[in-house]
Amino acid sequence: MSKKLKVGIIFGGRSGEHDVSLNSAQSVMNALDKSRYDIVPIGITRSGKWITGGAVAALTGGSDATRPAALLAGAGTSALMQFDTESRMSAAADLDVVIPVLHGTYGEDGTVQGLLELANVPYVGAGVVGSAVGMDKAIFKAVMQAHGIPILPWQLVRRADWQANGDLVIAEVEAALRYPVFTKPANLGSSVGICKCANRAELVHGLHEAARFDRRIVVEQGIDARELEVSVLGNDEPIASIVGEIRPKRAFYDYVAKYISDDSDLLIPAPISAELSDRIRRLAVDAFQAIDCAGLGRVDFLLDRTDDAVYINEINTIPGFTTSRCIETKAGSLTGISYSELLDRLIGLALDRLPKKRHRRRHLTRQRWRPSAIKHQPHQYERIEARTKTALAQASRDAACKQRLLCRCPKLHPSRKRYASVACANRLNRCVRQDHHCVLYSSRPAGIVWRCWHCASTLFI
């Protein structure tokens, strides 16, 4: 009998979508195959306290039989620790994989994913970058524009600008967009804080409401649109599900329509042409890959009723897993994949990413840039010195010395081209002539720093 995997389910959290996370986590825990997995519930209270034990009952108000917990950010352990006393900790579980079921800020935005990376624990879903970009509506729209994926016209409003000069902000929005518009907090999900504004008075209210949740507000052009959804599954070679359509009974698909009234219709497949469906599915995969998403994501689209133009709305890197409205489970059921099998695939995708990361870490760790590890190659000196002298002579005619020259380190990277300024190239040329060792000194965001081991000359590249 094979050993069960210990699966940590992180839920709750500090965001305004705390209750949604509880419902999603309960749905996931009910669907997981108990014969294959040992479930370790890990709750996060509204104040940010981590707890284990009876975490579900504690967060829903039914029990207090929990212990404070912590996931240590150390690459040598994957243990979930619990506090026995205020000064003593013990291992609660050695986690094999984690499923973050956290919606909104402090969970879906890359923060928890970064902690799991530091703790060296595989986890389901997008990584730090994909989660952060998918969460931030303004940055997400900028990335979509850069990749040629269609989006609606929009404006970014900062809360400080709105509070300092609201009349100017209103004038700029009205000059760029026409009513109706939507006001949205840049970093929040589940339609929390979103308002549809048909006139100036409603726009003022919408900006005030969005400013309660975030310091950055997205104002987006409103259109008469159908709301479509596509689930994307995979890592390096993702695939798109059947296209579904949401038909809300309210003015738009807001928080109440999603999680309270439950009276919206989810049509799968959406009543659209096969050609349009294929186009939307391709766009969903393109957007998924553009933000470096992984595991699972739900891509939301708007289809203009007047001309059938398609616009991407957002990506949910941790979509709501409530069975009543989850397109991932309903679309899967039409193609023969049950909810439990979908979770099996997600866990498999999470574990599939781990060996590649560990291989990369080992590879980087093995590269020790020491002088003793650098082999001497005197036969290259004449060739490299001649090229350097030629480049310096050509650059000397440039009075501003702004030209960037091709240089090579003959010791460390004989096959990798590097670029440096004239002064730096001159120092490298001197070190080559004097038969010195050039070694990697440090890496900075602005570039790589090489240092001559003998004379301490520094070369910024």
Bulk shape: globular
Mean pLDDT: 76
Radius of gyration: 27 Å
Please list the strands of the largest sheet in the order they lie side by side: 6-5-4-3-2-1-7
Structural class: alpha+beta
Fraction of helical residues:
25-40%
Given as residue ranges, the uncertain stretches (5+ residues, pLDDT < 50) are 359-389, 394-423, 432-456
Strand content: 25-35%
Q: Please provide the count of β strands.
A: 22
Distance between the termini: 56 Å
Main pleated sheet: 7 strands, mixed
Helix tally? 14
Feature tags:
461 residues, alpha+beta, 7-stranded mixed beta sheet, 6-stranded antiparallel beta sheet, 14 helices
Describe the protein:
The chain has 461 residues and is an alpha+beta fold. It has helices at 18-31, 55-59, 111-119, 128-135, 137-146, 159-164, 166-176, 200-211, 255-259, 274-290, 327-334, 339-366, 381-395, 422-433, and strands at 5-12, 37-44, 50-53, 66-71, 79-83, 89-94, 97-101, 154-158, 181-185, 195-197, 216-221, 225-234, 239-240, 244-247, 265-267, 295-304, 310-316, 405-409, 413-420, 438-444, 447-452, 458-460. Mean pLDDT is 76; it is low at 359-389, 394-423 and 432-456. The strands form 5 sheets. It has a 7-stranded mixed beta sheet with strand order 6-5-4-3-2-1-7. It is built from 14 helices and 22 strands. 35% of the residues lie in helices and 27% in strands. Strand 20 and strand 21 (447-452) form a beta hairpin.
Task: Put the structure in a nutshell.
The chain is α+β, with helices and mostly antiparallel strands and 461 residues long. 35% of the residues lie in helices and 27% in strands.
